[in-house]
Amino acid sequence: MKKRPNLLFILTDDQGAWAMHCAGNADIQTPNLDRLAAQGTRFDNFFCASPVCSPARASILTGRIPSQHGVHDWIRSGSLDKKALGEHADHPYFASEDVPIQYLQGLTTYPDLLARNGYTCALAGKWHLGDSMQPQHGFSHWYTIGRGGCFYNQADVIEDGKLHFESRYITDLITEHALDYLGAFAGQENPFYVSVHYTAPHDPWDEDQHPAEYIDLYRNCEFTATPDEPLHPNRIPTAPGGTGEERKRLLRGYYAAVSAMDAGVGRLLDKLDQLGIAEDTLVIFTADNGMNMGHHGIWGKGNGTFPFNLFDTAVKVPFIARWPGHILADRVTPSMCSHYDIIQTLNELLDLGVQLPEDLPGHSFANVLEQGEDTDNHVVILDEYGNSRMIRNQEWKYIHRYPYGPHELYHLTTDPGEKENLVDNPEYAPIREQLLSQLQNWYYTYADPAMDGSREAVTGFGQMRRPGIYSEGKPVYENSPKYQK
Known about the structure:
Strand order of the largest sheet: 6-5-4-3-7-1-8-11-2-12
Keywords: Calcium, Hydrolase, Metal-binding
Largest sheet: 10 strands, mixed
Number of domains: 1
InterPro entries: Alkaline_phosphatase_core_sf, Sulfatase, Sulfatase_CS, Sulfatase_N
Pfam family, one: Sulfatase
Protein name: Sulfatase-like hydrolase/transferase
Family: Belongs to the sulfatase family.
């Protein structure tokens, strides 16, 4: 039997689709992502399932939307026992009252499918889906972040089942562990899956958090590739933001984090070449969610505002795939696809032959990669964050917020920057009603009533428990006042 290809899956944290030179950003320096795109296929219209970390990651892994898997906000607790943090247990950044929770327990992920098909599965980097101490879902090699975010030069990492703090730059450490995995697995008979989950370019963006060589790349940059707009009136008080020099400072740190990560990607690609396995390895690069860095006056992702925002800058993510001889090279596709399509796509590309559940909303886009077809898998793309839901096609975007709004409607053909909200314009009432009907029917089809985010009090300040978990005979919902600090 012919050996299946290896899989190198690179996932970044809070990287907007706009934050690559190959995507048209003239300010940012990403030579290795540009190289990857030139050797593979890049998507111009790829979307996350939710514009915040943990729900998006859960959807990538399971192919389920948040209203199916029950992760609706970033995981605020449940990653590890507070006592494991030792002297750092009462630090305001690390303090918690955690009892480990496996948020994806009982759900099938694509790493599970790979492990069942003989793949050696290794994680290097961020997990942020609970119980970071324990390898989960097919992973036999596990180097991760103790909690969700971390300082770049004081990361709480878990290695060999133990938690310790690192003083070295976490981007380099993640890269080095991934390189070790590649070297160890290259000569084995069975294929491997190495998942490289960078914390970059998530904040902090202070200069002391990143190597000077990357900060200095942007020392004199005017940052003309991103808009310079007044702060959004709905921005949350804890969000960063600013104009003038403060705007440049924030962008300098963000761009530096991207370029440092890009250098790590270059080392990984070089390693595949050195080992002679580049042609036997499918490489996928994407981000968990998009990011506003001054776009619309917002500094943050979906929860950079309240109500949550679902602008394209928050929901569009980079997506590049390379597999020499199988995936078309130097190609950009306008096809509209989503993270919830990944599990079907890997099932087809890697010839796993798994009969996936019928209630998964995604569709394989292997035909886009291998045959060069430009298709819209769903005609529309759906996105959600708590009570906020979005439906989008090539021409229109509608955002509905349960139960009372505010709602938004944008004509993307004439208003790609989403500046003019047409929702109250009677001329477009039929379009609004049609899109709302499609949105409601889609969620009626796929949402699990016990996990339905539109019925949950999602605040953007973190999830404490999974919906559907029972305590004293009563359902416990995330962000319930019972579990607020």
